[in-house]
Structures are given as structure tokens and as C-alpha cells.
Write a structure and sequence with these properties.
Length: 112
């Protein structure tokens, strides 16, 4: 079974940083583009960032560009999202998405 398990969320003050991780299993991870999505309370799912199979090309939503960095380690079947300069509007459940599967999310709360 395809499994994608996000972790690393928590409560952080505005301006702070968090690093999310996503552990993948059940498929050939290095064959797939991986994305981070998020869903804020009461809102729809929003695409945040994607990284190509080899990690050579990344893309970001305008709302996070310059603050978030996506990376991956194909040897460990892991993808990461480094989030800096966090804002209250970044509060959401964050999910990783690959191979047509969205995994378990991790909650990020940005609040003073």
C-alpha cells in the first residue's frame, strides 16, 4: 500500500520556522513528483510546492515563494518542507501528495 506520513507540525509564533517531513513507502518514490498541499480551517485544499523526481526543479505557490523550501532525499524516501518567516495565514493541515495519493497530514498553527 502507498503510504505518505507527514510530521513536524506544531505551534509556532509569527516569524518562526518549522521543518515538515514526509515519509513515503509502498511505491518507487524516486519515480514520482512530490507535492505539499495544505488545507486551512474552513477552506479548500491549496497547492503549496512541488519537486521533480530528481529534485532538480521545484515550484512554489506565490503565497509561500521566498519563505518555503522543498527538498527530497530519494535514498531515504523522504521529502521535506522548510518553512521560514511563518505567518498566521500559513495555519493549516499540511499533506504530502505523490502517486495520486494524499497521506496523513500534520497541523501547523502560527499564532502568538
Amino acid at each position: 500500500d502507498v503510504q505518505l506520513q507527514a510530521s513536524g507540525g506544531g505551534l509556532v509564533q509569527p516569524g518562526g520556522s518549522l521543518r515538515l517531513s514526509c515519509a513515503a513507502s509502498g511505491f518507487t518514490f524516486s519515480d514520482y513528483l512530490v507535492s505539499w498541499l495544505r488545507q486551512a480551517p474552513g477552506k479548500g485544499v491549496e497547492w503549496v510546492s512541488s519537486i521533480r523526481r530528481d529534485g532538480d526543479i521545484t515550484s512554489y505557490a506565490d503565497s509561500v515563494k521566498g519563505r518555503f523550501t522543498i527538498s527530497r532525499d530519494n535514498a531515504k524516501n523522504m521529502v521535506y518542507l522548510q518553512m521560514n518567516s511563518l505567518k498566521p495565514e500559513d495555519t493549516a493541515v499540511y499533506y504530502c501528495f505523490a502517486n495520486s495519493n494524499r497521506g496523513q497530514g500534520t497541523l501547523v498553527t502560527v499564532s502568538s
